[in-house]
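Deviations from the work plan: none for this task. Representative record:
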Amino acid sequence: MADVMPSTRQFTITPIDGGITSPTGFRSAAVHSGIKAKPGALDLAVLAVDTFASMAALFTTNLAQAAPVLVSKRHLEVTHGVGCAIVVNSGCANACTGDNGLANAVTMASEVAADLGCEPEQVLVASTGVIGVGLKMDRLVPGIHAACTSLAHGNAGEAARAIMTTDPFPKEHAVRVDTAQGSFSVGGMAKGSGMIEPNMATMLGFLTTDAQATPAMLHRALVASARDTFNAITVDGECSTNDSLFAMASGTSGVVITEELYPALLEGLLAVSRNLALGIVRGGEGATRMIAVTVRNARTTDDARQVARTIANSPLVKTAVHGADPNWGRIVAAAGRAGVRFDIGRATVHIGGILLFENGLPHDDAAPRAAEILTRDAVDIEVSLGAGDAAATIWGCDLSAEYVRINGEYRT
Amino acid sequence: MADVMPSTRQFTITPIDGGITSPTGFRSAAVHSGIKAKPGALDLAVLAVDTFASMAALFTTNLAQAAPVLVSKRHLEVTHGVGCAIVVNSGCANACTGDNGLANAVTMASEVAADLGCEPEQVLVASTGVIGVGLKMDRLVPGIHAACTSLAHGNAGEAARAIMTTDPFPKEHAVRVDTAQGSFSVGGMAKGSGMIEPNMATMLGFLTTDAQATPAMLHRALVASARDTFNAITVDGECSTNDSLFAMASGTSGVVITEELYPALLEGLLAVSRNLALGIVRGGEGATRMIAVTVRNARTTDDARQVARTIANSPLVKTAVHGADPNWGRIVAAAGRAGVRFDIGRATVHIGGILLFENGLPHDDAAPRAAEILTRDAVDIEVSLGAGDAAATIWGCDLSAEYVRINGEYRT
């Protein structure tokens, strides 16, 4: 967001209905293949482009990368980011599944490619669900064929539901970007980490646009937009084996993304990504309130991000917010251990706009008003470090007994 | 421990009764000064040496350091580590209290010094309790005088109780070290982070010995022993404004700690520190089980520590252990995001000695036996990285709904 100044904007962004198929040139389908045990539960989606699309993706930085992540990375390399589809299943992460898992991920891509008439490497793959369990290919392959024969422009909502594991609600969003050179759209869907079932901790995001962008341009915009959206949220500080964020550009709007129009593409991706990312936080396991932690007046943006992330991940801050407790002391202590140098005497802490800490001393008289604000669904925590003029925001959620119940009660 | 090989040991270590006054040359006293509201609750302790002691201390790395931490640091500098007493109160952390707080911490030291006939700078200060609230000096100063007039050799147990905030039990320990050059003792007491009351998150540790060691030698042994004990435990990854670990050597045993005897001093400190540190973990808020995470076959000890710490702090691993779930997938995922390079395919995961993950694949048939082991009070998690031969252990505890209740239910 920092590289787009409102005053130089030559474009407007308007929310529109739908999700991944709102931009032209894309079709999707979702089916129940039988990976999920529940009868009729959607568990497989295919997202296809009518011709070919520029593709870009970001993957988990975890060393333990699932088979679909490894296969998608290789496919993107081989094709230099030109592809025709993404296939995704829920209910099984195909992670820690060895060579057999890799072969299954490749099969998912080749089955889609056979149906769509493209190369297997032009298909990317994503999976989410239980770790350490193999895919039931005898169910998945017929499901893939059923999905590929029912691709349509209008059923993005089903795809958004098919990628859910234990998310409390589907997450999709779309916007229209109007520029002097014409209009294009950006759509998307995402799933968060419900983790009610064992071993599930995956964030998957899918973005589409009918703008015409090179794979390199699309990748650049994806990296920049993810930084302040998908990479600026935290539910419990965990990072999964399967986290993936995909972007596809069909080009069918005819609007060519030049350097001049790059900010319009970036803002379009940001608008959709922000909506989806905040949806993941709101749907975080056991979450009852969203917390936006903004750190201002840091020496660098990295410093600001680091302090904001430490506060947003602090179990003591998260439980305090859960209990509607304006506990500035825990916020100061978390900031102080974030590994960033600043002078506590110059720092301030606001909760919901109420000043609670300044000049090294508390404003305890303001605590009751802050406690009132903390009972709301969304809470702002603002820390100024008094060290510079950089800022960053991290979105998180509170820590509830429900989180412990969800992740502590279990199968085996 | 790595620098002391059992085969070269010229000494034996035997647990003995008592705590900080088990080594000769020390006296202590504890009183109810009125900082804690509960009538009669001990809230002030003085630990004094009969003549003078070598002193060393380690303090919180948090940028937000409480007044007693700042004052103790300065006093240690001024005296080059020769002192006569430590005064500590519970119920009020004297943190985020500005210049007034600094003046109060200095007063605590000078009142003790006046009573004992030494310089104010020869007294160190510690506080634990609520952040952002000033000390009630009209209660504390009479309490200090009462304590200084009742110093005795035999009442270490009362001091161990006086430093508690919401710890479920007092923590003290002592050992005798027998060497060819004579015998000396090491004693200690500590408090953990109960945090049932607001803003409390402090670890305080006090170690005494009647060995004769220079301040520099004592500091070196304190740093080395803390690394594998007090600095190898985690309850919730938080680091407080007041964390302090003190050591005093009276020298009254007549055993002079030379380079040759340094390992005996180190092992004595380690034995007492390990006992106290594990007591803090067992008394962690809401903890129902202790978790020892050992990472082996890492390239470096730092790598091993980093991976072990990430696993021990992972909310998903902690909730899994709470639910007696042998969830190796969460352990692998936490190791994978620890920022240390290793090959997942060469890693193994054991829970309670049961192999659950090897060659990138699970051993799910062993899960029921591991689940059985996870119902015990103390649980071993062992991860081998297959990258070298360094190892480290971090001790933590499970995450329970009780932790959320304790830290979410609140005053204001």
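The two ends of chain B are 45 Å apart (CA to CA).
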